[in-house]
Amino acid sequence: MDKMLILEDGTCFRGKAFGSLKDAYGEVVFTTSMTGYQELLTDQSFLGQMVVMTYPMIGNYGINRDDYEAVRPILHAFIVRDLCDEPSNFRMNRTLDDYLLKMDIPGLYGIDTRKLTKHIREKGAVKGCIVSSDLSLEEAMERLNAFEPFHDHIARCSIKTPFEVPGNGKRVVLLDLGMKQSILKELGAMGFHVNVVPHDTKAEEIMEYNPDGIMLSNGPGDPKDALGVVEEIRKLLPKVPVFGICMGHQLLSLACGADTRKMKFGHRGGNNPVKDLETGKIMITSQNHGYVVDMNTIEGTGLVVTHKCVNEGSIEGVRHTKYNAFSVQFHPESSPGPTDAKRIFLKFKEAMNAGGPKNA
Prior knowledge:
The chain is of the alpha/beta class. It is 23% helix and 32% strand. A hairpin with a 5-residue loop joins strand 17 (260-276) and strand 18. The protein is globular, with a radius of gyration of 20 Å. It comes from Youngiibacter fragilis 232.1.
């Protein structure tokens, strides 16, 4: 079936539909990852977005039972150059097309994704829609202009009921802001006893678990839409070690008095170089974020910058000088992507071994 992608500036790309045939609306973003599309599809940080793969051939190893980051994908559409309809992999149990059809996620292939990516880099991430090619451009633009993005991203993907993953080590309360399963797996692999709680859990309830440490997960949307969570994090900082990843990093920074801003087109991919300012070492990291902590707002917050993006100097990590708290913008659990940053989890273990608030 012929479909077209319309951007809010009127730019049109024509291609073929796969997966669900329904129309799609959302923010059009791109990722530079060359592989790991199953993990990307099920990363809840893509809620509200239509994801463009810059690598041309997608679907060549199908979908398997093991590489999910969430129970189901919640992105709004998946856009590729070439769709492989004859995948081959010993773990595969269905094709990408079959999977998106079952999950009711629209796909679009056969468009010039390189041109689309360059357009986003120049103009910034924009609203877009995937609609039937039978529509006129005027009709499509009218529908797109009527589309209103929602602002409760974290609430839409966070769990509703707490659960636990038993372990023999330190007790970690993981605040689910739209977490990737690989974060939970990494904590489990280190032997931690993990209690996963909903995003709106109060600080007092969290402390009832008697945690040795608190993990703030990744998640979708604008961090300033979750100011209620920020207030609870602020209460927790003097009491227990805190470690934030991606959205968790942004919310921790807001809780300390810093500010965040929307990026032009964000960092999404598995090849982002980050410099550890405390060691001087460079890590290649996996990232997925459209907001960043504003460098100009760090002074006076008690935060110091620990990591920077090599490409453009944005903040990739902070730590607090008074409280035992730190965070990173990238994904140290590295799924999909490189494993350079996994040692960040050891830093969390060391923070818990150190105990309460850190002295300046």
